[in-house]
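User: Sequence recovery, please. Input:
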């Protein structure tokens, strides 16, 4: 019953991601899909009636063990703004595909993954007594390797709070340790019940919290064209006015943003932002405006800028924070001044 519940829970999560309507990341969808498929395999394994059915279900269940660790690692890299080249990603994923192809040989004359499997029925359901082949060792090395790599990246970025928030990185460290820890407990205690579906269902539920939040507060999800994103500065805040991110143009206009910690309150003093934009933002929030407002132009040295403050909304139109859009209008104002002369 627990396997069916895990399967249905993750299936609902997958449907949520598909219908979410925002760019939440391809690896998150792949991860959730692999866990949903694997959970379905575990349920089929628990309810199988003979060895052939159990082996087929076990092949499906291994989708979690083969593909979840690598997609968790890719998700951690994405969270920490590490860009892996397409060639590296393709090679790593191709290795996992080869491992899974060896999984598919179980029950055949080839003994790459399982040398032998015996069908058993217990009080907790069906389980297999297995003798492992050489590719199972490769599978374990990949599982431990991606877990170690994910932990290394997470620990390296744990104090780089201008890149990733401490809350998010702590969540991924916990997920990484939980996933491999549960598997090792199963192996060391020789349990006849599979705990992987429970641990990975819990893991993806926890991971969706920071990943969904990152999607909501991503500058790339604002309805603007790519060329405008390069010319216009955007700064994003949560409903509690915590700094959630900005684009490169914003950091060019306000260099202090490079030192701001994500998901923390705006620093109290200093910097161009506090000089020109903090008071208008606070007034916008205090007055409870529902429509965007355009502020008066301000001048910094030879640059004249104008700004717009508005509300960030989820797909459900619910308020989830605020944005400030800053545009350089120096050339426009100078041209208008020359035309009037």
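Assistant: Recovered sequence (341 residues):
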């Amino acid at each position: 019953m627990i396997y069916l519940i895990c399967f249905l829970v993750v299936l609902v999560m997958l449907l949520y991601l598909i219908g979410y309507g925002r760019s939440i990341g391809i690896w998150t969808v792949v991860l959730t899909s692999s866990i949903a498929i694997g959970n379905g395999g575990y349920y089929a394994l628990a309810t199988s009636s003979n060895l052939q059915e159990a082996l087929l279900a076990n092949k499906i269940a291994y989708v979690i063990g083969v593909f979840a660790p690598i997609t968790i690692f890719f998700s951690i890299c994405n969270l920490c703004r590490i860009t892996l080249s397409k060639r590296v990603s393709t090679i790593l994923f191709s290795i996992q595909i080869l491992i899974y192809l060896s999984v598919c040989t179980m029950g055949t004359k080839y003994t790459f993954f399982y040398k032998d499997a015996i069908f058993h029925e217990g009080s907790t359901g069906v389980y297999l007594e297995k003798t492992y082949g050489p590719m199972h060792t490769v599978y374990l090395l990949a599982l431990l390797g991606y877990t170690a790599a994910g932990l290394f990246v997470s620990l390296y970025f744990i104090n780089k709070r201008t890149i990733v928030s401490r809350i998010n990185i702590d969540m991924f460290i916990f997920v990484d340790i939980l996933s491999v820890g549960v598997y090792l407990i199963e192996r060391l205690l020789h349990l006849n019940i599979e705990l992987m579906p429970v641990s990975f269902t819990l893991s993806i539920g926890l991971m969706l919290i920071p990943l969904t939040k990152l999607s909501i507060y991503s500058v790339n999800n604002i309805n603007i064209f790519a060329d405008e994103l390069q010319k216009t500065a955007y700064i994003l805040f949560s409903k509690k006015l915590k700094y959630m991110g900005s684009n490169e143009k914003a950091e060019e206009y306000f260099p202090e943003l490079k030192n701001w910690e994500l998901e923390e309150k705006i620093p109290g003093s200093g910097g161009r932002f506090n000089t020109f934009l903090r008071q208008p933002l606070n007034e916008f929030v205090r007055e409870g405006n529902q429509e965007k407002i355009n502020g008066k132009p301000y001048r910094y040295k030879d640059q004249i800028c104008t700004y717009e403050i508005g509300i960030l909304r989820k797909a459900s139109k619910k308020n989830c924070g605020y944005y400030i859009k800053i545009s350089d209008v120096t050339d426009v104002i100078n041209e208008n001044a020359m035309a009037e002369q």
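The two ends are 81 Å apart (CA to CA).
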